[in-house]
Design a protein that fits this description.
The protein has two domains: 19-93, no CATH class; 103-305, 3-Layer(aba) Sandwich (Rossmann fold). The radius of gyration is 22 Å and the shape is elongated. Helix 2 (30-43) crosses helix 3 (49-61) and helix 2 (30-43) packs parallel to helix 5 (78-92). It is an alpha/beta fold and 306 residues long. The protein is built from 15 helices and nine strands. The structure holds S-adenosylmethionine.
Length: 306
């Protein structure tokens, strides 16, 4: 097999279901695969296509991303090429990159991404940071709607809590969060149930930080989102009833019962509806109500205290 630098003589395959899988048999080198996968992803509207192509190849080959460029003349075995082609076709169908790679970085952690469980978003790192700052030493933290466990695990990793409880209504999420906790060796007590119903009763009035990234979008907002979200994420994880507000409002009502005096509630929400949620928090008698912005400068997290 002859390696040739920087790609193939053939034009990249730019479309069609299974296009990359069909082409893969003709890729002689890593460089061929890079050129074809990049072209396939670009045609499907994936950005940045070069980065995604390199990450998919790296994950199949068990390499770091920079190594892919250095190995461009390396011959590809048929099985490896086929595996890369199959992943490229799934990415071209706009499956989230992290779901294909199987894991995601969240603050200091690498977390497993699971089927039917939301891939954590970068803006949620801000929510986790606020929860970490608000957690007193040996404090009790409850993360409602934990998904992969990202927020609860970040608190267990970066703060010094006495107890972290994480809840979710989704069995897939509970299994995923428990698995991530075990893999990372972090103590998070994961429970299945609606809001705080699965939290031990003796913690009522004792919680120092109640944190949540609940479903807060409307069906219309999900439909208008990128295909990675609109077509490949669980609607239960994304859509809140009553115009996106119902889970947030129920959570704020529960905060008064579960927080210790002076305890903090932190809830991620839609920028356009945070003012209404803040008003609701005040009506419910919560104090110090404010809104924090995400890394893009958008209002993103409601903060209040009991
Ligand atoms: C937007 S996702 C957030 C997941 C995770 N916290 C994160 O930030 O990546 C919302 C999560 O809340 C869960 N959920 C939805 N309704 C819930 C409820 N009533 N009680 C507990 N969890 C709920 C969903 O299953 C989903 O895992």
């Amino acid at each position: 097999m002859t390696g040739h630098a920087g790609g193939s003589a053939e034009p990249p395959d730019t479309g069609g279901v299974g296009g990359a899988t069909r082409q893969a048999a003709r890729w002689a080198t890593v460089g061929d695969a890079r050129a074809h996968v990049t072209g396939r992803l670009a045609a499907a509207g994936v950005e940045p296509c070069e980065v995604d192509a390199d990450l998919l190849i790296a994950s199949v080959c068990g390499w770091t991303r920079p190594r892919v460029a250095l190995e461009r003349d390396t011959p590809l075995k048929a099985g490896t090429a086929a595996a890369i082609g199959a992943l490229a076709d799934r990415r071209a169908a706009r499956e989230p990159l992290q779901r294909l790679l199987g894991e995601i970085g969240f603050r200091r952690l690498r977390l497993r991404v699971c089927d039917d469980v939301l891939v954590p978003r970068p803006e949620t790192e801000v929510l986790a940071g606020l929860a970490i700052e608000a957690t007193p030493p040996e404090g009790t933290v409850v993360d409602v709607g934990t998904g992969t466990g990202a927020v609860a695990l970040a608190v267990a990793d970066e703060a010094s809590p006495g107890l972290v409880v994480a809840t979710d209504v989704s069995e897939a999420a509970v299994a995923c969060a428990a698995d991530n906790a075990q893999r990372r060796g972090l103590a998070v007590n994961v429970r299945l149930g609606d809001l705080l119903e699965a939290v031990p009763e003796q913690l009522r009035g004792e919680v120092d930080v109640l944190v949540s990234n609940p479903p807060y979008l409307t069906p219309e907002e999900v439909a208008a989102a990128a295909p990675e979200v609109a077509e490949h994420e669980s609607r239960e994880a994304l859509v809140g009833g009553a115009g996106g507000q119902d889970v947030i409002w129920r959570l704020l009502a529960a905060a008064g019962q579960w927080l210790a005096p002076g305890g903090t509630v932190l809830v991620e929400g839609a920028t356009t509806r945070l003012a209404a949620a803040a008003e609701r928090a005040k009506q419910l008698g919560l104090r110090g109500v404010g809104v924090q912005r995400d890394l893009a400068g958008r209002e993103r997290v409601l903060v209040a205290r009991r």
